[in-house]
TrEMBL record:
Name of this protein: Glycosyltransferase family 2 protein
Protein topology in the membrane: Multi-pass membrane protein
Coiled coil: none
Assigned EC number: 2.4.-.-
UniProt KW ATP-binding keyword: no
Length: 329
């Protein structure tokens, strides 16, 4: 496709071959009905299944579809970054591949943004009844914590289904952060915003690509990116330990003055253990932030783009995109 489309739809995909046919069947009519020029930017996040080759096949039927391949799995937020940075549309929507966010809401977002002249429209999950209780509870905890850290402007229950204007994308592209947590960063920029509420549906096919490990990583990234409060834990623990040791000193002096002999070993041993643990925790916290400073200074790219069907449309027909075998050796 040539020229600048009015709308880009960015979809990070990691091993999503099972859901792709259903996604296209719902997304395409929804986008065609909008009557705007658009591109769909599928970012293949180093899938090990046939996601990339399937998207490539689908492009024959659907020329609006664009495939960006990352060289290896770099994570949801990194794939989102690649898609946002490379998108060309005047408006950019990000949406998951698994149809948990309804593509039909994209039209509502665009209308709202145009009518009210907004730069950001969040998709807010009004109903998460189809999520597992575990996911609902952990998500509830996450959004409560993040509202405390980032502030009350943060829309709660707004994930990565949102529409942003080109001005927002331009600001995001200039951010020095490697991989920001967009759901926190975008609200913190203070652009005019609105929201569209929707019902979170069940994943249409395939399995979640967010195991507990990645959920915990996202929560820690979110915390450490927006507050240095955990570092202050060291100060608080230090003060508590100091107070405790003052009390212990008084106790020790009183006992000494009374001439009672203290066996002492247990208490000494426990104190050494306790203070060693506290110090290690605080050192670890310091290390987390130092690591962030180091990574920022290194300024290494968070992802490497293997190919972009929009760059190589001439070459792509001559050299077909490399096929990934469906089964791992
Ligand atoms: N995803 C990705 N890279 C990853 C993990 C996930 O691009 O390393 C994509 C995935 O294909 C999906 C989106 O991120 O489009 C959200 O993942 P998922 O739906 O599995 O998360 P959940 O809804 O279970 O939190
Ligand atoms: Mg999902």
């Amino acid at each position: 496709m040539s020229g600048v489309p009015e709308l880009s739809v960015v979809i990070p995909m990691y091993n999503e071959e099972a859901v792709l046919p259903a996604l296209v069947a719902r997304l395409r009519p929804a986008l065609d009905a909008l009557g705007v020029s658009y591109e769909v930017v599928a970012v293949d996040d180093g899938s090990a299944d046939g996601t990339a080759s399937l998207v490539d096949d689908l492009r024959i039927e659907w020329p609006h579809l664009r495939l960006i391949r990352l060289r290896r799995n770099s994570g949801h937020q990194a794939a989102l970054t690649a898609g946002l940075h490379r998108s060309r549309g005047g408006w950019v929507v990000s949406i998951d591949a698994d149809l948990q966010d309804p593509p039909e809401s994209i039209g509502d977002m665009l209308r709202l943004a145009r009518e009210k002249n907004l730069d950001v429209v969040y998709g807010v999950r009004g109903d998460r009844a189809t999520d597992t209780p575990f996911k609902r509870n952990t998500a509830g905890l996450y959004y409560r914590l993040m509202r405390r850290i980032v502030g009350p402007d943060l829309p709660s229950q707004a994930g990565d289904f949102r529409l942003v204007s080109r001005s927002v994308v331009d600001v995001l592209r200039r951010m020095p952060e490697r991989v920001p947590v967009y759901r926190l960063l975008i609200p913190s920029l203070g652009f005019s915003s609105g929201s569209v509420s929707y019902t979170r549906e069940r994943r249409a096919a395939g399995e979640t690509k967010y195991p507990l490990r990645k959920m915990v990583a996202l929560a820690w990234d979110s915390t450490a990116d927006f507050t240095a409060a955990p570092l202050r834990l060291a100060t608080w623990l230090g003060m508590a330990a100091f107070t405790a040791s003052l009390v212990a000193m008084v106790f020790g002096l009183v006992v000494w003055a009374n001439g009672t002999v203290i066996p002492g070993w247990t208490s000494l041993f426990l104190a050494v253990l306790l203070f060693a643990a506290v110090q290690l925790i605080c050192l670890g916290l310091l290390g987390e932030y130092v690591a962030r400073i180091y990574r920022t200074l290194q300024n290494r790219p968070a992802f490497h783009i293997g190919s972009d069907s929009a760059d190589t449309s001439a070459a792509a027909s001559a050299v077909p995109a490399q096929r990934t075998p469906a089964t791992m050796p």
